[in-house]
């Protein structure tokens, strides 16, 4: 299991991060998974035995129970783990009133204290904003996060699900006011959703921001268990309207290629899809989820091999979507420049 530095920091995290949305049962959605503490502990320990040191959760997952289960699962091994959690949304039960949402100082300070209690720890290694809050200025949000770092309750701060201009503005605010900057950005990225390649990935690399990838299997679709044109099976995330690809035909063309490579390699399509994301430039860590040990072991095996150039090319070409303006124009211009310089 390889370790990579998180952005410009000196913190090393494993290339695989275990996502814990499947921990707990208060959300009431079977497609999310409902693992109890005993089941979760087995998955956590299996990960750690394989070299995983990075675990991602959020206060709203299962109404706080995901944090509770993760904290219990790490009992006795907390010092070997990097815990990431998030703040932004109101708890699913609607408690706390109108001020317990967003990225205000009020909500951040209350939320971090609650997360610390649920996790059973005195600090959070990576505290992430769980989305955009168009009402609260970055100055307020970042000052509150900076105070938490100075108080020792948080070690690093990160963001998730922002546009390029939003993240750029946040980084500029940190630089201008001398506040803690976002060390990471957690974004959706997979063979079924490659839009982040247009701006978010290049921008993160240019600004020294680590990239955490969520939904690398497109909610399980890229595991290859679903068929073209068929009704999504009950219990899958697609069956309840989650992770429907923008272009289903192109996605199932990609799944066909995944299956071909998987058959030739005697491995699962999920491993191939994960391997593709792991090899993408600028990616720091890939967040995976699992409902059982078999599924987790298969996903972890994606770290032990590499795609051939031919396999990468086949996946790249099949999954690529037409570039919108101005990206197609810039791609054309850059290609011409490379040819002129004889670098192709």
TrEMBL record:
<feature type="region of interest" description="Disordered">
    <location>
        <begin position="224"/>
        <end position="243"/>
    </location>
</feature>
<feature type="domain" description="NADP-dependent oxidoreductase">
    <location>
        <begin position="15"/>
        <end position="318"/>
    </location>
</feature>
<dbReference type="InterPro" id="IPR020471">
    <property type="entry name" value="AKR"/>
</dbReference>
<dbReference type="InterPro" id="IPR050523">
    <property type="entry name" value="AKR_Detox_Biosynth"/>
</dbReference>
<dbReference type="InterPro" id="IPR023210">
    <property type="entry name" value="NADP_OxRdtase_dom"/>
</dbReference>
<dbReference type="InterPro" id="IPR036812">
    <property type="entry name" value="NAD(P)_OxRdtase_dom_sf"/>
</dbReference>
<protein>
    <recommendedName>
        <fullName>NADP-dependent oxidoreductase domain-containing protein</fullName>
    </recommendedName>
</protein>
<dbReference type="Pfam" id="PF00248">
    <property type="entry name" value="Aldo_ket_red"/>
</dbReference>
């Amino acid at each position: 299991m390889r370790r990579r530095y998180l952005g410009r920091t000196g913190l090393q995290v494993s290339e695989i991060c275990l996502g814990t949305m499947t921990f707990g049962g208060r959300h009431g959605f079977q497609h999310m998974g409902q693992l109890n503490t005993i089941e979760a502990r087995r998955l956590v320990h299996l990960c750690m035995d394989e070299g995983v040191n990075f675990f991602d959760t959020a206060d709203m997952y299962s109404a706080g129970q995901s944090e509770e289960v993760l904290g219990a699962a790490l009992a006795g091994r907390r010092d070997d783990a990097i815990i990431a959690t998030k703040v932004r949304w109101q708890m699913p039960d609607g408690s706390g009133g109108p001020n317990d949402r967003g990225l205000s100082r009020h909500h951040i300070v209350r939320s971090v204290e609650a997360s610390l209690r649920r996790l059973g720890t005195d600090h959070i290694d990576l505290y992430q904003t769980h989305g955009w809050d168009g009402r609260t200025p970055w100055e307020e949000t970042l000052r509150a996060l900076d105070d938490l770092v100075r108080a020792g309750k948080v070690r690093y701060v990160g963001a998730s699900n922002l546009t390029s201009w939003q993240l750029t503005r946040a980084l500029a605010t940190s630089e201008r006011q001398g506040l803690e900057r976002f060390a990471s950005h957690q974004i959706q990225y997979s063979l079924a959703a490659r839009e982040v390649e247009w701006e978010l990935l290049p921008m993160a690399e240019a600004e020294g921001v680590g990239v955490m990838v969520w939904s690398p299997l497109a909610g399980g679709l890229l595991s290859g268990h679903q068929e073209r044109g068929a009704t999504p099976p009950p219990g899958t995330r697609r069956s309840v309207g989650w992770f429907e690809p923008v272009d289903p035909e192109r996605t199932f063309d990609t799944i066909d290629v995944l299956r071909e490579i998987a058959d030739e390699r005697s491995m699962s399509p999920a491993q191939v899809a994960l391997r593709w994301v792991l090899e993408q430039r600028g990616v720091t860590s890939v967040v995976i989820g699992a409902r059982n040990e078999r599924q987790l072991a298969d996903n972890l095996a994606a770290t032990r091999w590499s795609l051939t150039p031919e396999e990468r090319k086949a996946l790249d070409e099949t999954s690529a979507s037409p570039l919108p303006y101005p990206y197609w124009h810039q791609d054309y211009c850059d290609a011409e420049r490379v040819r002129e310089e004889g670098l192709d």
